[in-house]
Amino acid sequence: MNDTTAQAINSASPHSDNQGVGRMRRQSSAADGQRRATVTDVARLAGVSTATVSRVLNRNYPVATATRERVEEAMRELGYVVNAHARALAGVSGRTVGIIVSEVIDPFYAYIARGVEREAALGDRLCLVCCTQGDPQRELAFIELMHERRADAVIVVGGSFADRSYTTELARRARELDAGGSKLVLCGRPPLDEPAPTASVEYDNEGGAFAITDHLLAQGHERILYLGGPPALSTTRERLAGHRRALELRGIARDPELEQLGSFSRAFGRRRMAELLKEGPEFTAVFAANDIVAAGAAQALEEAGVRVPQDMSLVGYDDIPVAQELRPRLTTVHIPLEEMGRQAVRLAVSGGDEDDWREQTTGAVRLGTHIVVRDSVAAPSKHARRV
Amino acid sequence: MNDTTAQAINSASPHSDNQGVGRMRRQSSAADGQRRATVTDVARLAGVSTATVSRVLNRNYPVATATRERVEEAMRELGYVVNAHARALAGVSGRTVGIIVSEVIDPFYAYIARGVEREAALGDRLCLVCCTQGDPQRELAFIELMHERRADAVIVVGGSFADRSYTTELARRARELDAGGSKLVLCGRPPLDEPAPTASVEYDNEGGAFAITDHLLAQGHERILYLGGPPALSTTRERLAGHRRALELRGIARDPELEQLGSFSRAFGRRRMAELLKEGPEFTAVFAANDIVAAGAAQALEEAGVRVPQDMSLVGYDDIPVAQELRPRLTTVHIPLEEMGRQAVRLAVSGGDEDDWREQTTGAVRLGTHIVVRDSVAAPSKHARRV
DNA sequence: CCATCCATAGAACGCGTTTACTGTCCGGAG
DNA sequence: CTCCGGACAGTAAACGCGTTCTATGGATGG
């Protein structure tokens, strides 16, 4: 389809008359857009050369005021808009950064995307956003597409899958990107095991999980259900690791039955919670893998008539807005999401400026997390809930 | 800043040695990216011409299988990635659509963005996303930036301001864009009063407001507070218009005190609601300008000990996820947000295919809205709430 | 053996940017 | 009152990289 379109559009133009700058085209179809004005047109109208027009455009070289004004007037008159493609082709940065998330409507990603967008805007850059819907293949494809567009940075956000061939492929892309002067930034995911020229922005995922589990333990909970999160995702693994470490440190044996992984969806949280309430192991607190799952669990709890926090404590992770909307308000782990997005851009973009000492190609920052105590946690009730 | 950066990057590369294809560059800095492979390189390595390589790339012309394989092998070996800029410059569509919203983390916009992104992806297009944070100037600037990048479509989303000079400027941009073969799409906002080549996707905003107000009236409410929404925004005006029409139709006089406009924020909803509860007019129901404002109002109500829906009915608008998270679950107006995004892309992109009958340049679709009844509305309590 | 069709090559083109270079005009030196 | 160095303005032309039109060599078919 690309082809046919492109052909149809182009085959109709270049034929006879080579040097005429396009007189003929103009009178073709009625409402049809007459050829876009070019630097040459502006130059001609202003009575200067194209180089001068370019200088006016870029203000990077002194141009007499009178000349500048004449050129600007000509641009206005012709409705001239520079062609970013031509400019990029000539070697100027395309001023674009790409961000790849799994889902834009998920607040976790949306906040990071906001940080990326804002930071990008500060540097007069535009932001290419893609959603993989959780498909690693699509992620790879998008990286390729962004590479084709010569994005200054390609930021992949969110947990990654522990799939060898995928990792290898990603490393390859990172090298290709780097060879072209772009940078692959891993945001909210662990670095590649294979060495590759990437930058990375992480948050203390394990630490946050440790802290909030410990918060639960400090209240006296000993049977804590860990609920949700795709098992193969790095995000899940890290959170679970922090959770386990906290248990271990207090000398509490780990019960596999209390680790109910699954997905990050609200539906999962609700369904599995309901099931476990009916016929699951005993527990007095729930550590939902993220706030969305917590929202689902909260609903199941409500429907089952289990009061939070009196009968059951509940915590989440991410501290997205829904955490404050739930009743009781959810105790959770805060992640500086927007800041992560900003850092991701800074890392990639500043790195691009000083191309002398490329040694620091592999920048990395790690941001802290902290728990936010609200109303969803209390000490376990005297008589442990019996199913 | 734009300029200095661009200069710094470029002034350092092209110097002596003009025809050598870059021998020198290679040995410059250690990790430095050696010049990217080009079609010419691939052609040379595969022993064919650049035309053939291009054909292999675009599969738009028969190429002998053996040749194709040789070319593909060469591309792989060199880590070749086409340059989208060069390609776009040569006349092929850049396969990019732009969307401009005021805020990505706002679910209203996020859902539309998702629709745009998905539909764009179906056509192998990438999506440029920008946030104006409500600033019309920034909106104009982003349109310009997208125009420079020759986006197939530029979709501006959300209510617009009733500012004459802004509208004029927008119309001008629409014409420039159209002249270049792109399209400006107005999504979720009324068409420009000034004639301009735009496409538009609307939703029945007035009708939704009418319906939900009527729903309240049918329950017996007569004193309904309309809360929130920027007065100058078209979205607010339309919703208010629907609200008023419903009142009128039931013969209920309009009370200016019951129209408390402001903003679309949660903070506004909460603050103003609290104020009105303390010292405002009498009313038995609240029509929040959108769900976010409703969430704020719900909190104020909760804090004031006013029960919903027993003591006070509450409805919102947009039907974003928070509506289902509130307790009681919020009765609201559903908008097919994602579908709007999809339609916006379709309108702009299909329109671009058949450039023969440009008459239909100004496409427009209007999607329906409907109310979603949940638990936040009840008949007014016998004894009207007295402050 | 010529008419065709196919695969491929050569070259023009699209549009800014930038370098190398020319022509001007200034002030100060001689 | 010239003459020279240098700051300034501005220009022609090369360049970046795919795409596609036109042309050509060769093979197949009649």
Description:
Two copies of one chain form a homodimer. The first copy, chain A, has 387 residues and is of the alpha/beta class. Chain A has 15 helices and twelve strands. The first copy, chain A, has helices at residues 2-11, 23-26, 39-46, 50-58, 65-78, 84-89, 107-122, 136-148, 164-179, 205-218, 234-249, 266-279, 291-303, 322-325, 337-353, and strands at residues 96-101, 126-131, 153-157, 183-187, 198-203, 224-227, 259-260, 285-288, 313-315, 332-334, 364-367, 370-372. In chain A, strands 2-1-3-4-5-11 form a six-stranded parallel beta sheet, sandwiched between helices. A four-stranded parallel beta sheet of chain A has the order 7-6-8-9, with helices on both faces. In chain A, α9 (164-179) links the parallel β3 (153-157) and β4. In chain A, α3 crosses α5 and α8 packs parallel to α9 (164-179). The longest helix of chain A is centred in the last third of the chain and has 17 residues, at 337-353. Chains A and B meet through α1, α6, α7, β2 and α8 of A and α1, α6, α7, β2 and α8 of B. β2 (126-131) of chain A pairs antiparallel with β2 (126-131) of chain B. Chain A binds a DNA duplex (30 and 30 nucleotides) through α1, α4 and α6.
